[in-house]
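User: I'm writing a short report section on ligand binding and want a predicted complex to refer to. Could you take this sequence and zinc ion and write out the structure as C-alpha cells? A short remark afterwards would be nice.
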Amino acid sequence: MYNPEAIAKAFAAAAEDRSKALALSVERKAAIEQQYPRMEAIARELSSIGASIAKTFYSEDPAKSIEALAAESLRLQEERKALLKSLDLPADYLEAQYHCPKCRDTGRVDGKICSCIRQRAVEISLAELARISPSGQCSFENFKLDYYRNLTDAAGKDVSEKAKANYDYLKAYSEDFSPASPSLYLFGKTGLGKTHLTLAAAGAIIKKGYNVVYGMAGVVFSDIEKEKFKGVEGKYTMQKLLDADLLILDDLGSEFHTSFSAAVAHNIIEGRLLAGKPMIITTNLDINGIHAQYGERIASRIIGEYVPIKFEGEDLRQLKKFQY
Ligand SMILES: [Zn+2]
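Assistant: Sure. The C-alpha cells for the complex follow:
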C-alpha cells in the first residue's frame, strides 16, 4: 500500500509545515509581547505557575494549592484571550497553526501514520502521475465518449458501444481494484483512448491508497538498462517495478527495439506473474505483433494470463484534427 517515495515526501512536507507553524507562532508571540507588555507579563506569570505546580507536591495540601494555581492560570488565559479579542485577533492567534491538528504535523498519532500523511501521499502520487504522463490529468470524468460517435471499425461497424464497454470495464476495474485483480492487455491503434483510460484507472487506484507505478515502456526499459549496465538508479528500478501493487507499462512496442528490451519486458512480465501482482500493458501491437517483437513466451503469457481489451476505430487524434 502507498508508494514509499510518496510517503517519504509526505513526511518531509509535514515536517516543513510543522517548523513553519512553530516559527510563525514564536514570531507572533515576540511581536505582540513587544507591543503589549501586559502580554509578556501574562506569559511570564503562566510559566511561573507551571513551575509552582511542580513544587506543590512538597506542600502540605497539594490538592488545594493546585486548585488555586489552576484557577489563577485559567484567569490569566482568559485575560489573554480578551486582550487578543480587543485587538481583533482569534483566541488561538499565538498557538502554532498546524496543517493537521490531529498529529500537529508530526505525521504520527500514537505511533501510527496519521491520515494526513496518507492524504498527502495520494496527492503527491497523483501530481507525479500527471507530470510524467503524456496527456496530463486524465480521469474518467474528462474522457469524451462522444468522440466515438459515428466511428466505425474496418468492417464498417459502429464502435461507440465497444468504446463504452471498455470505459465501463476500466472504471469497474479501478473501483474494485485489489492486488489480486487480473492483468490487462489494452491493444488497438494509437489515439483511441487506451492511455487516457489507463491513467484514469491509475488515478482512481492511487486514491484508494495503492502503490501504482506508471511508465512509458521506452523510459522504463532504458532505466533498467542503465541500472544493469552502469549501476545508475533512475526513476524506475526492477525492485520498484516488482514491488508496486499495480504496474502500468504504457505503449509497449514503441520503444527502440533490442534483444535487451525484449528480455526486460520478459523479466517484468514473468516477475509480476510470479509475485501474483497485476499489470496493465497498453500497446498498438495485436497478439501477432507481440509474438513477432517479443517472442513466443511473452505472447503466450499474455494470451494465458491477461484480460484482452481491444480498442477499435480510426485514430481519434486524426479525427479531432478534422473537427477543429
Ligand atoms: Zn496528521
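A remark for your report: The longest helix spans residues 4-35. The pocket of zinc ion is lined by residues 100, 102-103, 114, 116 (CB under 6 Å).
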